[in-house]
Amino acid sequence: MSKSITTPDRNMAMELVRVTEAAAISAARYMGTGDKEIGDQAAVDAMRAVLETVDIEGTVIIGEGEKDEAPMLYNGELVGNGNGPKMDIAVDPVEGTRLLANGTPNSIAVIAASASGSMWVPEDSLYMNKIVVEERAKNAIDINDTPTNNLKRIAKALDRKVNQLTVFVLDKPRHKQLISAIRKAGARITLHTDGDVMGALMAAIPGTGVDVLMGTGGTPEGVIAAAAVKALRGGMQGKRDPQIDYEIEELTKKGVDLTQVLYIDDLIKAEDAFFAATGITEGSFLKGIHFDQIKGVTTHSIVIRALSGSIRFIEGSHSLQRNLAFGEAGLKQAVKMASM
């Protein structure tokens, strides 16, 4: 490991979950409004405010908003109170802004962290082809091989038949051939409009009902997912897969090798990584935010640390004032809640 990459001496994920809880609570107020940006803005504001209370000297490597033209925690922004270790930070205050706006399942608030200098920087790469599996199948994947051959090897590694595998795929026109190949191979498919961080997380954890993630999603989301997959000791490979003219032009201009395979240790170089996510809308894996006049607000989160391999599911009960205003007006309350 490079001398510039040092390991934090504590489980940062237990502190970072306060950040995702605040973001999720702030965003959930806008579930089903049909407005992608208002919920995202509330989550960004809450996430930024609570990050200021965390004992780290952090730099945002994977910011939020450029691809969706949403409000940002921008790349290069300094976060934390400056009193802790230097960390690379990756955030997605609302993964699945459309899911939140429509009130559909599986939108989450996500943050990942690793030692300073250890997180891969996507720069002009906006889209990445990915394949993710759990630990038992990590040596069975080859992103340069066909979906059929990958599924055969994954099934063997998991001691199953191909028709017993479930593959998470984003429901996008670019995946027409991939979906056809998976169906021809005999595997089952679960299609989702958004949310491949959630898909990668479910693929890397045994028993979730998802065995494999395949297909092209956001490159920033790929780096965030890599922190979780590394912490779970799963398998992940990626390749840049430009989808829009600007992206193709910039990568071509810089002579980027589009055939390069990015392995988990390329995406997260440090041996330790931290990941936290909190459900916003209801999901099969993480419950959404529940508001109750008596019980207050209930959150459901997952926190993971690579070094120890610890996985914790945390259900939080937050006592908030009934007249709480979310978004910018709720930042003081979000910080107060997160410090409890």
Write a structural description:
The chain is an alpha+beta fold and 340 residues long. 30% of the residues lie in helices and 25% in strands. It has ten helices and 14 strands. The strands form two sheets. Strands 1, 2, 3, 4, 11, 12, 13 and 14 form an eight-stranded mixed sheet that branches. A six-stranded mixed sheet has the order 7-6-8-5-9-10, with helices on both faces. A hairpin with a 3-residue loop joins strand 12 (290-292) and strand 13. Helix 1 (13-28) packs antiparallel against helix 2, helix 2 (36-51) packs across helix 10 (331-338) and helix 6 runs parallel beside helix 7. The chain is globular, with a radius of gyration of 19 Å. The relative contact order is 0.19. Mean pLDDT is 90; it is low at 65-70 and 322-340.
